[in-house]
Amino acid sequence: MNPPQPETTDQTTSQAEPAPKRSRLMGIGLALIFLVGSSVFFAKRLDQISLAFKSSSWPTVEGVITESKVVHHAGHHEYKKDDRYNPVVQYAFTVNQTEFVSDRIGYRTYKSYRDQQDAQAIVDQYPKGKMVTVSYLPEDPTECALETGFAMSMLVRLLMCSMFFCFGLIVLLSSCLSRKPG
User: Which of 16, 100, 118, 137 has its CA 20 to 30 A from that of 92?
Assistant: First the structure.
């Protein structure tokens, strides 16, 4: 007569259960990163697009360029050089006997370029001392620009942001709705 064998439990299922739960939590975390990040980026870009559209109908005043130069920012990203060139164009203008100074060229102009020639081309349009037309928001003249209007590249960025948001939403839904096997 053999001694009674202890009852065995199937340990493979009890050890396998934490993996789907961990995977599910990682999916939710990843989704939240995409959702929050794209929402913040979207809100910022939407405000800029709104101002770009409205800027075409703002009142204008004469201003003068007070500074015009390209600023070089040396950078290294991992194993490659990542230099940036910023066109810096500063101008002064007066609205209702109050002088304002700004450096916003436009809502559709990049603030940083990888190619020095691209930044220089912007600066060359606005040499120091040049008289310029400044468009400004009547309620807040600190919102102003030399170049008004909207560029399609702004919509492309907004579309990419929307795609990241949708990806985050899909990952979140699939992570929350996934069921345990069995």
Answer: 118
Domain residue ranges of the chain, discontinuous segments joined by + = 22-177
> In angstroms, how far apart are the furthest CA atoms of the chain?
109
Q: How far apart are CA 86 and CA 60, in angstroms?
A: 26
Give pTM, 2 decimals. 0.66
The C-alpha atoms of residue 149 and residue 135 are separated, in whole angstroms, by: 11
Q: For residue 124, what are the CA distances in angstroms to 104, 128, 179?
A: 15, 9, 61
The pairing of beta strand 131-137 with beta strand 60-73: antiparallel
pLDDT (tens place) for every residue of the chain, 182 residues total: 566 665 555 555 445 456 667 777 887 888 888 888 888 877 777 778 888 889 989 999 999 999 999 999 887 666 667 788 999 999 999 999 999 999 999 886 667 888 899 999 999 999 999 999 999 999 999 999 999 987 776 677 778 878 888 888 888 888 777 665 54
Sheet holding 131-137, edge to edge: 98-102, 84-95, 60-73, 131-137, 140-145
